[in-house]
């Protein structure tokens, strides 16, 4: 179960990075041709209905990160795991800025980190009422099923296209 949970975490992080950086596109040349670089350091600036939807997506997609970190990093304390979520999110946003492949936004870092925070809290609360091994097994099995479903849905139903800025 340990190797499966580590593999699931690694796959999740790769997919999460692919989501954040490339919005699930396979056509990297179109992503790189998109060449947009923007930086927002004011939290929740320009909040709108569309932005709210993206904030909710960012929040939700990072919840499994907290759960999977809790399954895999038993010896790390809560704050170290939360710092890992924060650093991962910040690094992804910085990569977007450096390579001009998206909008770098402090709001994304905040919502991503809060999603991971909720995942960590949910794990800790559940762990008080459910046996540790059973909880870990449930998270890994459910995560694996959700990951497979997500990949199938991505390839069967959701086509992401970038338009060139030229």
UniProtKB/TrEMBL annotation:
The keyword Membrane applies. InterPro entries: Teicoplanin_resist-assoc, VanZ-like. Keywords: Membrane, Transmembrane, Transmembrane helix. The chain crosses the membrane at residues 55-73, 82-103, 138-157. Residues 10-125 form the VanZ-like domain. Signal peptide: none annotated. The keyword Ribosomal protein does not apply. It holds the Pfam family VanZ. This is VanZ family protein. The lineage of its organism: Bacteria, Bacillati, Chloroflexota, Ktedonobacteria, Ktedonobacterales.
């Amino acid at each position: 179960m340990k190797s499966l949970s580590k593999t699931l975490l690694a796959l999740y992080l790769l997919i999460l990075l692919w989501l954040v950086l490339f919005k699930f596109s396979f056509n990297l040349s179109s992503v790189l041709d998109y060449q947009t670089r923007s930086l927002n350091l004011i939290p929740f600036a320009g909040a709108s209905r569309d932005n709210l939807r993206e904030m909710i997506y960012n929040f939700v997609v990072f919840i499994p990160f907290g759960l999977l970190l809790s399954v895999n990093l038993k010896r790390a304390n809560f704050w170290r795991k939360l710092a890992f979520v924060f650093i991962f999110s910040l690094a992804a946003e910085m990569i977007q800025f450096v390579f001009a492949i998206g909008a770098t936004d402090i709001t994304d870092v905040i919502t991503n980190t809060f999603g991971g925070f909720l995942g960590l809290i949910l794990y800790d609360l559940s762990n008080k009422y459910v046996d540790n091994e059973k909880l870990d097994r449930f998270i890994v099995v459910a995560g694996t099923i959700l990951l497979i479903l997500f990949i199938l849905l991505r390839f069967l139903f959701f086509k992401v296209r970038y338009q060139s800025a030229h």
